[in-house]
Structure formats: C-alpha cells, structure tokens
Amino acid sequence: xxxxxxxxxxxxxxxxxxxxxxxxxxxxxxxxxxxxxxxxxxxxxxxxxxxxxxxxxxxxxxxxxxxxxxxxxxxxxxxxxxxxxxxxxxxxxxxxxxxxxxxxxxxxxxxxxxxxxxxxxxxxxxxxxxxxxxxxxxxxxxxxxxxxxxxxxxxxxxxxxxxxxxxxxxxxxxxxxxxxxxxxxxxxxxxxxxxxxxxxxxxxxxxxxxxxxxxxxxxxxxxxxxxxxxxxxxxxxxxxxxxxxxxxxxxxxxxxxxxxxxxxxxxxxxxxxxxxxxxxxxxxxxxxxxxxxxxxxxxxxxxxxxxxxxxxxxxxxxxxxxxxxxxxxxxxxxx
Length: 335
Fold this sequence. Notes:
Radius of gyration: 24 Å
Largest sheet: none
CATH topology of the largest domain: MetI-like fold
C-alpha cells in the first residue's frame, strides 16, 4: 500500500511541477516589462534588440517558447541567466546548498526548542506556570520571521555585535571547499575553526527562521500531549507509579508526535519560502536572495528555474512528511 501511495504521489508530483512551470512561464510573459530592454544599452538599434530577443528565444510565439523551454528542462538545460550570463542550473547548484543548510538548521532548532517548550508546558499544566508559558509562546507565534531578523540585527549585530551581520563565511578566510555544502563539509573534515565561523554567520538567520516555527511546534505538540495525558492508557500507567516525566516521554509523546510531524512538514515548506526575505536581510548567498535579484532584473530563465526548484522541494518535503507520519502511525502503515 505504501509503495502504491508513493508511486501515485510521484505521478502527481510530475503533474504538479508541469502545472507550476506552465503557470509561471505564462505569467512571466504577460506581466508588464521587457527583460531585453533592461539589459541592452540605451543607444541600441532595433536590429540589435531583435537579435538579442532572438538569442534568448523571445521572438517566437508563447506556445513555441514553452515547448522549447520544456524540452530543454527535460534534458537538464534550464537556460542561461539574462542578468548573470551564466547557466541557470549551475547557479542553482551553487546557491541551493546554502539555503538547504540554513533551512535544516532552523528546522533542528525549531524541533528541539518547540519540543522542549511543549514538554515543559505539559508538565506544568494546571499550575501558575502554564499560562506564562502559553503567553510567551503566543508572543513568539505572533512575530513573523522578517521581524525577528530585523530585531536580531539591531540587538545582536548593532547594540551587542556578537555575530556577523551578513554573508556565509568571513571573506578573509582563505579556504577551498570541495562541495557547496560548507557547513557539512567543514564538520566532516574536522575543520572546526571554519565550522565555528560558518555557524556564527548562521546564528541570526537560523534564529529568525526557527523561532516562529518553534512556537508553532510547541503549541501543536502541547495540545496533542494534553489530549493524550487524559487517555485511559496514561491513567493506567500513572496508577503503576510512573512519574509525570516518564508518562510524557515514554507514553504520551509517541502518540502525540504524529500530528505534530504533519504540521511541521507543512510549516517547513513555508520556512523555506521565508528564506527569501531573511536571506536578503542578512545578505546570505542562497537561492532566496538570488530570487529577489532575479525578479528585479526580470531574469526569466532564472526565475523559472528557481520556481521549479522551490516546487520540487515542497513536493519532496510533503512526501517525506507523509512517510514519517505513516511510520509513526502503525494503522496508516498497514492500512
């Protein structure tokens, strides 16, 4: 059953990506603005404009343009960036790892912090500390990631300059990486000085992305734990002499984690989308920062490639979440 479900989802993923590609392709060509006019010199002749338009395939009909572009994408050719004059696929390969490392670091922070707050809140239920924890969590939940980013810049970057304000690594560090996954590579190769510098550059963007997600996880998991704590099997375990902490960690948590994983996966896709603004604020060299520049420059091939990458990430995350939910729920795994 799981194999059939995965196959159906993969088929739907292909259909979804095709629909996303079609919609984005059409929208980019019907909105006002000419990318050729933005990149050519003011004194260019009509012949020069026509030649450049033909070079980028913008002189053909819309259906012909889409057919040519789709055929190229299927063989791994995403075109050439109009603004950066480089292959789109190579640009995505350079920038995507930075965004993935940032997003997964924020996810780890959110899961650990949100889970801890939910467990503490469950243990403190029916005490004076429960409304305090809920109120603080509600405050964190109400503040969006870009506001956290601006506040962190002001506090940890200006008032108390503890962490770098921009970039991914200190430019003065002369080091060659074999892969674009700087954090993972420096950890695997045991270059702890470089690892510390990379982590220092990631602290503020990770906090900005992770704190709102942590608040969501804390609220959902605490509600699920509170519901589980009044079930009969919990009361029976309590009669056997189990402490509240063991009841939460050993009995209630495994039954409450399923819905939390499902919501966390959905929110993680929004977190990846939130990297666009956060990366811009911290000048972090990921695909989110590059997406803003691509939109400003009307770089059609780059925008199309970025949208396809975001769409693929969202689909893969949702598929992974469904598998995790099934793994934590035996009824779904065998159903």
